[in-house]
Amino acid sequence: MKFPKEVNSYCPSCKKHTKQKARIAAKGKSRTLAAGNLAHQRALTGHGGKRAGKVSVKKQGKQQKITLECSVCKKKHERVLHGGKTKKKVEFR
């Protein structure tokens, strides 16, 4: 999906529409002791780990998240790019 590098959007800190720079949101660090992560590691080791015969199907795309930076106050906020379909990647033009 193509998205402009600069967009006129609402800034929640300025409380008005301003020009904002767009870039892809960075993924944060994963928590090693999170409950879901521990359960997943436990399932992969020991008894009854990976199930035989089950084929995992990957998604063809996902809803992309971008970071918008206000040109006036330099604050950043995130926006999820909604749409009818999921996207494989975001391309800035």
Describe this structure in words.
This protein has 93 residues and is mostly beta strands. It has a domain at 1-27 and 60-93: Nuclear Transport Factor 2, Chain: A (Roll). Helix content is 11%, strand content 32%. A hairpin with a 5-residue loop joins β4 and β5. The model has no long low-confidence stretch (mean pLDDT 84).
What layout of secondary structure does this protein have?
Layout: E1 2-3, E2 6-11, E3 16-24, H1 35-44, E4 65-70, E5 76-80, E6 91-92
Parallel strand pairs: 1-6
Antiparallel strand pairs: 2-3, 3-4, 4-5
Protein traits:
mainly beta; 11% helix; 32% strand; Nuclear Transport Factor 2, Chain: A; elongated; 93 residues; two-stranded parallel sheet; 4-stranded antiparallel beta sheet
